[in-house]
Amino acid sequence: MFLFKLMNFLTGYVTIIVMGESPEKLINMAATRGIFLWDITRLGERALRARVRPGAVWPLRHMARRTGCRFRIQQRSGLPFLWMRLTRRRVLAAGALFFVAGLYFLSSFIWSIEVTGNRRLSTGEILQVASRAGLNRGVLRWRLDPPAVEEAIRTSLPGVSWTGVYIRGTRVTVEVVEKTLPEGKNLSPVHIVAGKAGLIKEVLVLNGHAAVKAGDTVVPGQVLISGVIPPPEEPPSGEKPSPGAPPETVKREPAFVHAAGIVRARVWYEGYGEAPLAETLQRPTGREFTRVCMKIGAREIMLAGSSPIPFPQYQSETRVKKLPAWRNLQLPVEVIINKYREMESYRLIRDRAEARRLAGERAMAVVQSRLPRGATVVHEQLDELVVRGTENLVRMKAMVESVEEIGVERPFTPGELQPSPSGRAESVPGGPSRTRPSGDRQ
């Protein structure tokens, strides 16, 4: 079928209207004479419409006289007739050729350059190196050498480990992958404190002094691994204590370290969710309305669609298309496409089991949004909250127990109040002495 239509377009065809007492005689006589007619359609009792090749029009005139019919040409279609019309309208043909040539000429240049993947390096720095390698706005596409630009970026920027230059139409995308530099080790004194309340499950100290043990209950901000290592107390070297005399001790300075370790604890979360037994919702009807306008500066020109929106309830979606910037020139022309989808209201009735399931999912979603990455859920529980009287809501509460890492770093300076095993704040060497308990009123 496609080849038949293509051949008819290349050779051309005419559409004729046959009129007479019996136009079928003309069709039958043409078929017996080897003239092919197709798409024969009856327009009335005395009229037919058919399509035929241009070379068969002259023989059909003689057959029409013999059968007492007449016909007229309704339309000429195909490439030969299109070419004849273009030769009579030379200015239009020249304009079309000029438009195609101009479009091809403009599409041969690079008009926009995009840089992706850079985080530490600035886009301007990458574009400056690419410009020295020949990548500029306005350069011809076939004069651009992507491998040379890639090599120049890798050579000139030591922070780039890989780069790729891709040409897509009139846009060039420069994709870079930066080197991963090792971060300097932080040796400043810090504590590991509790980021949230929980019951300690295990403590693994890599550096520092453990301030809690398994089974302790901690609150947010409480020190878990202290960055202050207390000094050991030893007798003076070379001296033996006399019998019955209290041993003399040599006090050493405490060590201030960057505490490190893993503290895992059992943490409990609560979430609340509700679902109505009956509610009014909206759904799309399938009808859409699109409005297109051109904005030039502060002026808007309507291109398609009416100004008032024909739907009483709708959802809107807006897309803005701008002309690509050329060098430092940005034209203040935008095409704004607003699509409106008609919505209708409907009443949704749920049974209590469905409402309980939906409220439970919402309560669990609240808890899941608060769970950190790496947390292991060990227990889940859903309870329905029943209130006195009847209401249109089903309320659910979710209880989730997880095991997770709760330690966070908190820097400190030597000399500030440090926690002691007894729960009081004590001063340490290296700063002013402050011995007021943490719970006393000032």
Automatic annotation (TrEMBL):
- Transmembrane ranges, per UniProt, are 91-113
UniProt xrefs under InterPro entries:
YqfD
Query: Is Metal-binding included in the keywords of this UniProt record?
Result: no
Which keywords does the record carry?
Membrane, Transmembrane, Transmembrane helix
Query: Which superkingdom, per the lineage?
Result: Bacteria
Q: Pfam families recorded for this chain?
A: YqfD (PF06898)
Signal peptide (from-to): none
Which segments carry the region annotation Disordered? 228-250, 408-442
| Protein name listed in UniProt | Sporulation protein YqfD
Name the source organism: Desulfofundulus thermobenzoicus
| Gene name for this UniProt entry | yqfD
